[in-house]
């Protein structure tokens, strides 16, 4: 496999109650409770862009607001490989998967600040606040390991505050 990983950032955005924002992908089957339909905001890092700048840009693009502050950064770059059925199709067909820098952020806004309808082609069609330990069960199979790591390593951030 000679395809590279796409460099990305990801956001575990915590509200005042210590719950994390998950959003439902608009391009996946949207049966309520279907595994894999929900994920954390994430997106590519532009050439030369600092990951701490990229995370706020991605939040603005994907959920309509960047009203947040970084409270933790995962020390490792986490990566996943696409399953064979998605190679050459997902991520523009140019990548084998993603290598991600993850941030825990405290949401400083109000629920009304979260707007999925600002992009003419939104990535998500719904969002909700979830318990951090739910993440692995919400993720598609190939992202489940990363979400398990995040649920463990960002647990100190999942406190009311």
TrEMBL record:
InterPro entries from the UniProt entry:
NUDIX_hydrolase-like_dom_sf, NUDIX_hydrolase_CS, NUDIX_hydrolase_dom, RppH
Provenance organism: Paracraurococcus ruber
Instruction: Give the PROSITE patterns listed for this entry.
Output: NUDIX, NUDIX_BOX
List keywords of the entry alphabetically: Hydrolase
Cofactors named for this entry = Mg(2+); a divalent metal cation
The protein's role, per its UniProt record: Accelerates the degradation of transcripts by removing pyrophosphate from the 5'-end of triphosphorylated RNA, leading to a more labile monophosphorylated state that can stimulate subsequent ribonuclease cleavage.
Q: Does the keyword Methyltransferase apply?
A: no
Record-stated family: Belongs to the Nudix hydrolase family. RppH subfamily.
| Annotated PANTHER family | NUDIX HYDROLASE 26, CHLOROPLASTIC, UDP/ADP-SUGAR PYROPHOSPHATASE
Does the keyword section mention Hydrolase?
Answer: yes
Enzyme Commission designation: 3.6.1.-
Question: Where can the motif Nudix box be found?
Answer: 43-64
Could you list the residue ranges forming a coiled coil in this record?
none
Protein name in the entry: RNA pyrophosphohydrolase
State the Gene3D superfamilies in the record. Nucleoside Triphosphate Pyrophosphohydrolase (3.90.79.10)
